[in-house]
Amino acid sequence: MRYYPPRYLFRRYELLRRVTGGDHFLEIGPGRLMLSVELLRHFRRGTLIDFSPGSLAFFAALGKADRDRLNLIVADFMEYSFEASFDAVIACEVLEHIRDESAFLGKIRGLLNPGGRLILSVPARKTLWSDHDEIAGHYRRYDRQEITDLLSRQDFKLIDIVAYGYPFINTLRMARIIQAKWQYAEKIGWSTERKTKESGSGQTGLLARSIGLLLNPVTVYPLCLISSLFNGRDRSEGYLVISEK
Questions:
Q1: Which of 167, 171, 173 is nearest to 227 (CA)?
Q2: Which letter, b or e, does each residue of 38-60 get, where b requires 16 or more Cβ atoms within 10 Å of its Cβ?
Q3: Residue 170, class by beta-carbon neighbours within 10 Å (0-12 exposed, 13-18 middle, 19+ buried)?
Q4: Which of 58, 140, 169, 188 is an S-S bond match for 165, by CB 3.0 to 4.6 Å?
Q5: What are the backbone dihedrals phi and psi of residue 229, each rounded to the nearest 5 degrees, phi first?
Q6: What is the CATH number of the domain that holds 151?
């Protein structure tokens, strides 16, 4: 049974119901490629870029039909020269790991087709900064107005911010903080790059498969419906951000 990170499941629900689709999408930092495959329901093809060579194993494990429609590039997004342009760029839990966020967003805008959409997810609310953010390689958390101003300066428009997953992901956050306290001494000395790579790796093994039996898109669906009632309130610890070029 596949392991779905609980926070991912709430983000996935809100993201997929807002995707407008198109011909070609770009996903930055696809991790285990779970969302990448689901995006193929809305796009004809996709390009994925991840700086971790570990993504190659996840790509190889996909079915042939999915591999034929996806192109995986192992490289640093900021250093790679793309030949294509895209109808949408998706970057979930990436921006907080980027030192020069303005340059990152500027490059994304240049890759989007006119009217193309940028979809981001970021950790919300600076007051929630914790040891977990440090060992995950985060440079920052975002307040609502801050992310709005940041995108506006890059000339993105129609900015919509969804405070997704409340109250459930806020409760799960406490488990991450407790785990971070156990791991802090080991991981605090790691490089930011190593922290980022580790934060993007999924869980495996018997425990992960057991959790997968309990938490998956079907079982979490009723909770997603409940959490969507709070989307417009600034209570969640995670934002989903949709904007347009």
A1: 167
A2: ebeeebeebbbbbbbeebeebbe
A3: middle
A4: 169
A5: -65, -20
A6: 3.40.50.150
Mean pLDDT score, 195-204: 57
DSSP 124: B
pTM: 0.89
Exposed, middle or buried by CB within 10 Å (0-12, 13-18, 19+), for 127?
exposed
Evaluate whether residue 58 is within a structural domain. yes
Residue whose tokens read 């790579």: 197
Sign of CA pseudo-dihedral 191, 193, 140, 57 = negative
**Residue 112: CB partners within 8 Å, gap ≥ 6?**
85, 86, 87, 88, 89, 118, 245
| Structural domain contains residue 111 | yes
The first and second tokens of residue 221, run together, are 């669906």
In what helix (H) or strand (E) does residue 37 lie, and over which residues does it extend? helix 34-39
- Per the structure, how many domains does the chain have? 1
- In DSSP terms, which residues pair with 74 in a beta bridge? 50
On average, the pLDDT of the chain sits at: 89
Q: Is the dihedral of CA 115, 116, 120, 126 positive or negative?
A: negative
Q: pLDDT above 90 covers what percent of the chain?
A: 73
Q: Locate 58 and state its tokens.
A: 């996840």
Residue 203 lies in a domain: yes
Which residue range forms the structural domain that includes residue 69? 6-244
Closest CA to 15 of 78, 69, 89: 89
Let me know if residue 1 belongs to a domain.
Answer: no
